[in-house]
Design brief:
By secondary structure, the protein is mainly alpha-helical. About 60% of the residues lie in helices and about 5% in strands. It contains four helices and two strands. A two-stranded antiparallel ribbon has the order 1-2. Helix 1 packs antiparallel against helix 2, helix 2 runs antiparallel to helix 3 and helix 2 packs across helix 4. It is globular and about 45 Å long. It starts with 6 loop residues before the first helix and ends in a 6-residue tail after the last helix.
């Protein structure tokens, strides 16, 4: 993402430069969530629990730092899980064990 020059790549680069990469997964999840919501403009995101919210409304909440919405929390938690799995796989492939 950094090499592509994407918004998320810029945010990831900032985290690395600030020495926060790997320690502040919530910031990573927020940055990735903002990208997801930007790409999903015009849609609604729904959960199995019945919550449905337009992506533009979710994007505003994330931009304001309001991560208390249950759907935002579910999306962020799911993304963190995916990121952790990707990091674990990356370590394993690089010979770091991946435990």
């Amino acid at each position: 993402e950094v090499e592509k020059g994407t918004t998320i790549g810029e945010k990831l680069q900032q985290l690395v430069e600030q020495g926060r990469f790997g320690t502040d997964l919530n910031a990573l999840a927020k940055a990735r969530l903002q990208l997801l919501l930007e790409r999903a403009k015009g849609y609604e995101i729904a959960s199995l629990s019945g919550i449905s919210i337009p992506t533009d409304k979710l994007a505003k909440l994330v931009a304001q730092g309001d991560l208390s919405n249950p759907l935002i929390q579910e999306l962020a938690e799911a993304d963190l899980l995916l990121a952790q799995q990707a990091l674990k796989l990356g370590k394993k492939l690089a010979g770091g064990g991946g435990k």
